Prior knowledge:
Helices cover 39% and strands 24% of the residues. By secondary structure, the protein is an alpha/beta fold. Among the domains are: 1-87, Arc Repressor Mutant, subunit A, CATH 1.10.10; 166-266, Periplasmic binding protein-like II (D-Maltodextrin-Binding Protein, domain 2, 3-Layer(aba) Sandwich). It is globular and about 70 Å long.
Amino acid sequence: xxxxxxxxxxxxxxxxxxxxxxxxxxxxxxxxxxxxxxxxxxxxxxxxxxxxxxxxxxxxxxxxxxxxxxxxxxxxxxxxxxxxxxxxxxxxxxxxxxxxxxxxxxxxxxxxxxxxxxxxxxxxxxxxxxxxxxxxxxxxxxxxxxxxxxxxxxxxxxxxxxxxxxxxxxxxxxxxxxxxxxxxxxxxxxxxxxxxxxxxxxxxxxxxxxxxxxxxxxxxxxxxxxxxxxxxxxxxxxxxxxxxxxxxxxxxxxxxxxxxxxxxxxxxxxxxxxxxxxxxxxxxxxxxxxxxxxxxxxxxx
Length: 301
């Protein structure tokens, strides 16, 4: 069994297609198919069920998947060790990010990283499913490091460092009955429609947990994956919503209320998978992050 066999196996498993995997690997499809057949012959088991629309892992394939990732990570660590003795760092780091959240100045950070380690490639990946999706991708080995906002990431098998905390305020459109109230309790809000992120996003989880603890039902009538645009829908009168103030530059057509009976706080962390030792490039990224952001920032009111 060669590392190339495992690389091709993971490419097909992640893409769900031989064609897409070949494209991602910059190879012809017949070459990838031949590699998988060789691996299946060596293991004595089919790894994929091939259908006209997609390929799906068999039970043997699912059993191999985490071991294949671990093996390639270990091989990468071995290369890192050799490169360090030569005074160079090579490889790549895949970073998961959240849209519209600019707590960390990634362009500036990556510019410094490139100057220090020009042979390191960085791949940025935004998760359509929010922080819950990023956490799963970390555990699956699809990401090396991720920025996320889940309330309790340690419970998910992740090593984390808190980077920032921000209160959540309630934004309502200017014609709303609550305008001018200043402070409200959650029990007053159950009758109103909400604009919020989909489930799995950190800010949505914080708010859902608070309403559940208060015993108040609420209805989210509009879900917006890009939290930075949610204020536009609130301003348009489509609902009320909780946002961190640093996300809202223009308060025209809005009133901002505080919650009197709950302390709603959004937490922003950097995370890696607990069960995987970070590669050299990942360590370099994390070291630079600690250098640039040594302590937790309070984004305040």
